[in-house]
Write a structure and sequence with these properties.
Elements: H1 2-15, E1 19-25, E2 31-38, H2 43-47, E3 52-58, E4 69-75, E5 93-98, H3 106-110, E6 114-119, E7 124-128, H4 134-161, E8 177-182, E9 187-190, E10 195-197, H5 200-203, H6 208-233
Protein name: Peptide chain release factor 1-like, mitochondrial isoform 2
InterPro entries: PCRF, Pep_chain_release_fac_I, Pep_chain_release_fac_I_sf, Prokaryotic/Mito_RF
GO cellular component, one term: mitochondrion
């Protein structure tokens, strides 16, 4: 599953020019989670459709009988509220520091550089240990916290707005899979619009097929928005 996670992350890394990639590894060397900071004009509008549960179907290299294994991973797309008046009361925060874990040498293991911030009213947690500097980790953790709180607000508003129609596109609902990567069939299928592409290798390189699929999702989201407006006027 580790190599699949890396491949899926590379889809976004290769397909977008303005980004900063950060990754966190388990002690065993496997990839536990990875994050990428993506910038540019309307980056969130373009990337928000990737949020949700992604299903992977493949035959692992260690599978001797050729059986297909199914696994899932969750992609979260968090907008950065740079122009949003999001006020966070410092009294609502609990900030803890600890020693960073994982690879990084002696310095990482002997200094309290890792930062964990808890927003007490909501229970939202943000952590960062990528940098050696505690100050930089605190700034990054705070930036992630703001993004998570803003995303939480967006989800609440979106849920209220689309509750009657239960629109899946753009709501970042994670209760059901949104996409399947089937390696034996060389197929990627987006279940929200029932669209399949039979060139998984090219898609995983983050090239034009990703843009094609995202554009189809945008078109469908616009179509659903028009239907909602019409239904409200009837």
């Amino acid at each position: 599953m580790v190599e699949v996670m890396v491949s899926c992350l590379n889809v976004y890394i290769n397909g977008i020019n303005n980004k900063r990639t950060l990754s966190s590894q388990c002690l065993q060397g496997g990839l536990r989670h990875a994050s990428a900071s993506i910038g540019g004009s309307e980056a969130y509008k373009h990337m928000k459709f990737e949020g949700g549960v992604h299903r992977v179907q493949r035959v692992p290299k260690t599978e001797k009988q050729g059986r297909i294994h199914t696994s899932t991973m969750t992609v979260a797309i968090l907008p950065q509220p740079t122009e949003i008046n999001l006020v966070i009361n410092p009294k609502d925060l609990r900030i803890d520091t600890k020693r960073a874990s994982g690879a990084g040498g002696q310095h990482v293991n002997t200094t309290d550089s890792a930062v964990r911030i808890v927003h007490l009213p909501t229970g939202v947690v943000s952590e960062c240990q990528q940098e050696r500097s505690q100050l930089k980790n605190r700034e990054m953790a705070m930036k992630k916290l703001r993004a998570k709180l803003y995303s939480l607000h967006l989800e609440e508003e979106t849920s209220k707005r689309y509750n009657a129609r239960k629109v899946q596109v753009g709501t970042k609902g994670r209760s059901e899979k949104i996409r399947t990567y089937n390696f034996p069939q060389n197929r990627v299928t987006d279940h929200r619009i029932n669209k399949s592409l039979y060139d998984l290798g090219t898609f995983m390189q983050g090239e034009y097929l990703l843009d094609e699929l995202v554009q189809s999702l945008k078109d469908y989201a616009n179509y659903e928005s028009v239907l909602e407006i019409i239904s409200q006027k009837i």
